[in-house]
Amino acid sequence: MRILIVDDEPQITRVLRTSLQSNGHEVTVAQDGTDALARFMKAEPELVITDLAMPGMDGIELTKEIRARSQVPIIVLSVRSQDVAKVAALDEGADDYITKPFSIQELLARVRVQSRRMVAATEPQESLIELGDFRVDVERHQVLVRDVEVHLTPKEFDLMLYFVRNADRVLTHKVLLRTVWGAAGADQPEYLRVLVAQLRRKIEPGGEPRYILSEPWIGYRFEPTGTDKLTDS
């Protein structure tokens, strides 16, 4: 995979370049957003990993510029104090984030997830989706979880379908609100909390969040095979 790394800290780019190249990836490095955008146009990477805080064009503006040109997966790097910037980047179209400091194994796992999503995105959208524990018949508005049908309201189905089509991706509250309710619902976060709670009651075994995972202060991530990690709503 061709990967563009964007970070103004040379020690980080050295480590990332070495680790990714040793795992078979082709790596291009940029020191800031302006340089990254020029290299993006030339190298046509299949994945972008970018820091948020950089001089000149930061990671948020870079994400916005890339999204205007491409749907290539974007992973943002941030420190815990950058939560607001992290959400802004995700709202602009970033697919995932990693909080510094992080392990190389975590980074490689996130890269593999985005690689799988990129392959899936190139396939035509099907009317029948089978993913993990889920089987979704789009035309019939039918959802089966572990071969057991669950009955969803139209809004619950819309949310479920968006989760399935964006599995393993961090989806912000704002993105989900706009998707399900349109622009009019963007400033009504209580709508989403209620709808997610309703959907969880129908698809989660024992009511414990295994599929729809909360990303605190950010949004949700859908894991179609489930997880034992419990999160708060």
Structural class: alpha/beta
Strand order of the largest sheet: 2-1-3-4-5
Look up the CATH topology of the largest domain: Rossmann fold
> How many domain units?
2
For CATH, the homologous superfamily of the largest domain is named as Response regulator
The tally of strands reads 12
What CATH architecture of the largest domain would you give?
Answer: 3-Layer(aba) Sandwich
The largest sheet is: 5 strands, parallel
Q: Work out the helicity level.
A: 40-55%
- Low-pLDDT regions: 229-233
Q: Distance between termini?
A: 36 Å
Count of alpha/pi helices = 8
Topology pattern, helix = H, strand = E: EHEHEHEHEHEEEEHEHHEE
CATH class assignment of the largest domain:
Alpha Beta
Determine the mean pLDDT: 89
The Rg value, from CA coordinates, equals: 18 Å
Beta-strand share of residues: 15-25%
Shape: globular
Layout: helices, strands, pairs:
Elements: E1 2-6, H1 10-22, E2 26-30, H2 33-43, E3 47-51, H3 59-67, E4 74-78, H4 83-91, E5 96-99, H5 104-121, E6 128-131, E7 134-137, E8 142-145, E9 148-150, H6 154-165, E10 170-172, H7 173-181, H8 189-203, E11 212-215, E12 219-222
Parallel strand pairs: 1-2, 1-3, 3-4, 4-5
Antiparallel strand pairs: 6-7, 7-8, 8-9, 10-12, 11-12
